[in-house]
Design brief:
Layout (H helix, E strand, L loop, with lengths): L2 H24 L3 H14 L6 H10 L4 E7 L3 E7 L1 H9 L6 H15 L1 E10 L4 E13 L4
């Protein structure tokens, strides 16, 4: 079996789980639960740089992550790649809350300031924008 066919099958399995099974199980609460789950996953995986976060996104088949806007209180990332395209093509309402929560928590840990995120699907461009709002005036208390 070719490497490309194996990759497509892997994506089909992820799409089946993420956008069909989990969606059916969680119903209306899918975004809130997956956002929390993404934050929880990130708490257990410390990173040292934003480059580490980008690498983990690829490793976990979340997609290719790139920073497109960097301001004091806000960062906007673009999520692209074959998995993102496949999810957008094969799912009417794919949730990217897991990725958003994961990214938000990793940035919160990295910069030690409260961070929350939202996502916006851009179907025509075959991408998802992840916007992370950060509050530099609100440091995370040390544990």
């Amino acid at each position: 079996m070719s490497e490309q066919k194996m990759e497509i099958q892997q994506f089909e399995s992820l799409i089946l789980l993420r956008d069909r099974l989990i969606s059916n199980l969680l119903g209306e609460d899918i975004d809130a639960i997956l956002y929390w789950a993404g934050k929880d996953l990130a708490r257990n995986q410390p990173v040292e740089t934003e480059i580490d976060i980008v690498k983990l996104f690829g490793h976990y088949s979340f997609g290719s992550l790139s920073l497109i806007e960097d301001k004091k209180n806000r960062k906007v990332y673009k999520l692209t790649g074959e998995i993102v395209e496949q999810r957008l093509e094969n799912s009417q309402n794919p949730s990217f809350s897991l990725e958003t929560g994961y990214l938000s928590q990793q940035l919160q840990k990295l910069y030690n300031i409260y961070s929350e995120g939202i996502y916006e699907i851009k179907r025509k461009k075959k991408e998802v924008l992840l916007t992370i709002q950060m509050d530099p005036k609100e440091p995370v208390p040390s544990v």
